[in-house]
Amino acid sequence: MFGAAIVLPVLLTAHLVYAAAVRPRLDNGVAKTPPMGWNTYNHYSCSPNETIVKSNAKALVDLGLADLGYRYVTTDCGWTVRDRTANGSLTWNETLFPNGFPALGEYIHGLGLLFGVYEDAGIRSCQINIQQAGSLYHEAQDAALFASWNIDALKYDNCFSDAATGYPNVNYAPSTSPSARYANMTKALAAQNRAVLFQICEWGVDFPALWAPLLGHT
Ligand SMILES: *[C@@H]1O[C@H](CO)[C@@H](O)[C@H](O)[C@H]1NC(C)=O
Ligand SMILES: *[C@@H]1O[C@H](CO)[C@@H](O)[C@H](O)[C@H]1NC(C)=O
Ligand SMILES: *[C@@H]1O[C@H](CO)[C@@H](O)[C@H](O)[C@H]1NC(C)=O
Ligand SMILES: *[C@@H]1O[C@H](CO)[C@@H](O)[C@H](O)[C@H]1NC(C)=O
């Protein structure tokens, strides 16, 4: 009968130990539950296009997956181009996305889904043969551009982190941690008027479990 009185303090202690071990997390209101959705990379690698994104977004709705919570539709690597525009903005590949990214976002939002884009915390994004601009040193400008497109998610990769020739730069004990590059994008996103899901895709370099929870969501 009195077993519970003994067990309870043990449980409380265990809870306190657990709470102390969990890192503080970035909390901007999103990702209260694990974010779910669809990303071009898993089937189309770095070759997305407008038709693919639209048809798969529509399929999330038509198949009933959206109702189950699969709502993020993210266009991964391959959407942008090598050169920024004259004012330094990123832009989309017009052959692959003839109607452009703002219109793509409107289409996705029109289906009741969430609009995700992809960039890279390095000099170039992750493609070996085709050069595409990365966001390193352009974080504030790119975050503002993405917010102007009404994005809901940013997947942020880690290729070409040190040099335009270093692909993919998988250095698990880097001389400088990727954390500062990711922190700069976290800060840039926080300065926008939208709550964006920030997906840190840095492949485990420099023990992200120790620093990434404060900077992003996944
Ligand atoms: C889009 O990608 C699909 C699948 O790879 C391909 O069949 C189609 O030709 C592409 N469309 C354009 C406009 O590039
Ligand atoms: C746009 O994508 C097509 C198909 O991958 C490619 O041939 C073309 O070079 C790209 N354009 C630019 C400006 O990168
Ligand atoms: C930069 O130029 C592009 C056209 O190349 C334009 O769409 C965009 O609004 C400009 N951005 C700013 C911040 O002026
Ligand atoms: C982060 O941004 C600051 C400017 O706000 C810059 O001085 C610093 O070099 C950046 N850090 C990295 C690692 O890119």
Automatic annotation (TrEMBL):
One of its GO terms (molecular function) is alpha-galactosidase activity. Keywords: Disulfide bond, Glycosidase, Hydrolase, Signal. InterPro entries: Aldolase_TIM, GH, Glyco_hydro_27. Residues 1-19 form the signal peptide. It catalyses: Hydrolysis of terminal, non-reducing alpha-D-galactose residues in alpha-D-galactosides, including galactose oligosaccharides, galactomannans and galactolipids. Pfam families: Melibiase_2. It is an enzyme of class 3 (hydrolase). GO terms for biological process: carbohydrate metabolic process. The keyword Transmembrane does not apply. SUPFAM superfamilies: (Trans)glycosidases. Its EC number is 3.2.1.22. Belongs to the glycosyl hydrolase 27 family. This is Alpha-galactosidase. It comes from Penicillium canariense.
